Amino acid sequence: AGSRARNCFRRARYFSIGLTSGQKAAKWDSSYLSLIEDGRPIEKYLALRKQFLALLPADERTAFQSTTCGSFVINLKGQRLRGMYRAKPLTFDASGNVKLSFDSVSDVKNLMVAQVGYWIRFAASTVVYHWHSHTDKLIAKDIVSPREAQFIALWKAGNTIPEIAELTYVSPFTVKNQLANARARMLARDNTALTQLCSVTGILSTPF
Fold first, then answer.
1. To which H or E segment does residue 186 belong?
2. Domains in the chain: ranges and CATH
3. 104-121 pLDDT, tens digit each
């Protein structure tokens, strides 16, 4: 129990959802998230968010939104979930720090491979950065390339790989390779899961 306590900490430490250390499950829906297995994703997110916001002029911060995907959380039933945390700040303080934010958390375990890892995407208008736990680098571009996003959008529209290749004047091998690269980066289970992750994060549409 002591080891687990060291590796788990209350989600309320960084962004409260109303649970306290003595909260009874009967008062809350059992799907409520109560524990995060590893605090590093949140610590990393907060540090990177501060770094990204510092790059933006004050008038562009209102367009800021972020997604953190792949960290493991536990609900009140003790079930292990794969979390996607999305945040859209609503107001900032005088120092430029987030004061009020519209946040959502969902379980995307069925969309992701079993491989351990998570990624973070920051966007504000045309400025997009991403960070991945496998590289530990903040990159000044989206997590998928414009070409990959084009193929993903065409797949989402119902086109097969040969049809996508014909529409974009490339070989089927190129389409397969580009989609595989995007899946690996986003830890997506398959192409359909890839389109869903791209849709909810705002790569293919606006998530908020």
1. helix 172-186
2. 2-140 (no CATH), 144-208 (1.10.10.10)
3. 888 999 999 999 999 999
Q: Rounded to an integer, what distance in angstroms lies between the CA atom of residue 77 and that of residue 123?
A: 34
Q: Which amino acid is at 133?
A: S
Cα–Cα distance for residue pair 195/208, rounded to 1 Å: 17
Report the distance separating Cα 86 and Cα 68, nearest Å.
Answer: 6
Distance CA 117, CA 138 (A): 15
Q: DSSP string of 157-168?
A: TT--HHHHHHHH
For residue range 21-61, list pLDDT tens digits in order.
444 445 555 555 555 555 677 788 889 998 999 998 888 88
Report d(CA 77, CA 31) in Å as an integer: 7
Torsions phi, psi of 63, nearest 5?
-90, 0
Q: In the chain, what is the straight-line distance between the N-terminal and C-terminal CA atoms, in Å? A: 39
pTM: 0.79
- Check pLDDT > 80 for residue 140: yes
Q: Is 141 exposed, middle or buried (0-12, 13-18, 19+ CB in 10 A)?
A: exposed
